[in-house]
Amino acid sequence: MTQQQTQGIILSLGSVNADFQIRLDRKVGETTTQLASDFRRFSGGKAANVAYLARKLGAKASLLARVGNDDLSQQALGTLSEMGIDLSQVEKVPDASTGFSVIMVPPDGKKNIVLANNANDAWQKSDCDKVKQAIADAPADSVLVVDYEVPAFVVEAAIKAAHARGFSIVLDPSPPDRVDKELYPLIDFLIPDASETESLTGIPATSAEEGKKAAQKLLREGVQHAVVKLEDGGCVVAHADTLLHVPAFEVEVVDTTGAGDAFAGALAVALLEKRSLADIACFAVAASHAAVTAYGSQPAYPSREKLNSFFDKISAQVKELHA
Predict the structure, then answer these.
(1) Do 249 and 223 form a contact (C-beta atoms < 8 A)?
(2) Strand-pair category, 225-229 with 61-68
(3) Distance between CA atoms of residues 195 and 214, nearest Å
(4) Domains and CATH numbers, the chain
(5) Which residue numbers are catalytic?
(6) What is the maximum span of the chain, computed from C-alpha positions, in angstroms?
């Protein structure tokens, strides 16, 4: 599998955080005071992580976001700048703190996060014009990836502007209670995780069969492609008459932080490169699998060579499902 040349870019709109991460020797809450180790400070947030992985895989990426006018903004943006991500659409909000998350990783690697959204929620209605202009100025065939860890009015403005340009739109419906289902017909790829899927459809995505039912329901509600991420790390993809199951395979889980964002970023890159639907899903699952094998989110994100090695294993196992 070789990288394809493309003129489009990844437009990543959503949350940017300063991550403070620690390891625990037992699950959160087993005692009132728990000792931690391996304290690290990272750049994080859904939109930041998507842009980071896209750039690492060779795509051009532009971040549309808000940070605070504080010292944490450098932690949140520093590695993104070093990667060559376009930060011209990131603004510092006066009298606001940068988004802040505390990430606790127990022995099984399944993280717990406490998030203060801070500047991520400090967008103004007037900012919508800036978002629309950034999308209008983007090259043809670009891809918008957006999450709901920013105000819903910004998400709506971005989705409508990108749809008007004919861009592919990838929506990470997190948190699901902010999702406006009226926008579903404009969404090319909706990519809920298992808990988000249950919130949006009432169907728990604990198996491929349940994932199929949930994905089909999302199609009936208007989305073009429903990509339901299963609890085991695989996914179910539904589009028109196509139903695919991309099974997970066993890896040593070190840390699940940012795995869903790796999924979104890789899916967007595969879209940008105009891959087949099966390849798009496998590329995304491969990225999320690779991401859980190391500590942190962005530091754990794979090179294209490593991602391709996971892709080869995953793509050999894709199954067609019956409606």
Answers:
(1) no
(2) unpaired
(3) 12
(4) 10-16+45-97+119-320 (3.40.1190.20)
(5) 261
(6) 54
For residue range 206-243, list pLDDT tens digits in order: 999 999 999 999 999 999 999 999 999 999 999 999 99
Residue 137: is it exposed, middle or buried by C-beta count within 10 angstroms (0-12/13-18/19+)?
Answer: exposed
CA contacts within 13 A on the Cβ side of 2: 2
Q: What angle do CA 206, 212, 216 make, to 5 degrees?
A: 130
Angle, helix 277-291 to helix 259-272, in steps of 10 degrees:
150
Closest CA to 190 of 142, 166, 163, 222: 222
Give dist(CA 11, CA 154) in Å, integer. 14
**Other CB atoms closer than 10 Å to residue 312's CB: what's the count?**
12
What's this model's pTM, rounded to 2 decimal places? 0.94
pLDDT of residue 222: 98
Residue 150: both structure tokens together: 């920013």
CB 182 within 8 A of CB 201: no
Comparing CA positions, the residue from 175, 58, 83, 196 lying closest to residue 121 is 175
Q: What is the pLDDT of residues 142-183, one digit of tens each?
A: 999 999 999 999 999 999 999 999 999 999 999 999 999 999
Pick from 248, 232, 238: nearest CA to 214: 238
pLDDT of 6 reads 57
In the chain, what is the straight-line distance between the N-terminal and C-terminal CA atoms, in Å?
Answer: 30
DSSP structure string for 273-285 = TT--HHHHHHHHH
Exposure of 115 in the CB half-sphere (CA atoms within 13 A):
19
Report pLDDT digits (tens) over 90-110. 999 999 999 999 989 888 888
Collapsed DSSP state (helix, strand, coil) of residue 101: strand
Q: How far apart are CA 53 and CA 305, in angstroms?
A: 13
Average pLDDT over residues 239-266: 95
